[in-house]
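Protein: Required for excision 1-B domain containing
Species: Seriola lalandi dorsalis
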Amino acid sequence: MFYHLQSERVETYQLFEEGHEAYLRTGPQYDFDHYRQLVHEITQAFCGISKEVLEIKGRLHHEFDRPDLSEHIEKLQSKEKQKLELTAKLQLARQRAQDHPEDEGCQEKIQEIKQEIIKNKEALSEIMQDFKYDSEECD
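Structure follows.
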């Protein structure tokens, strides 16, 4: 179930990304109402996933006496929150770059945020590997 929720998160990010690209194509007027609706739906999806992940975390800790696994989930939730914040920052930076093509600082900012996202994804991957390793240990 936990792995399924993580893949749902990945799919939700893809939808968010595709929706933002579509939004950028509506510039320079921008269809903000449509985009705001997308952000609302994405937020609802992430909240639902987080709620289920936190329920699993609680069960691992209390029912299965695996505080080590619940700690991995806690770290994962924190990194996922950071990833969402970085994704939003990247989207704003992309719009800024589109609106101000003459400003080279915008492209630098985009690259900077992309690097942070890469580091974040590496950390997420590491947490998932640790979770997998520790959960297989007890099989």
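Remarks: Residues 1-136 form one domain.
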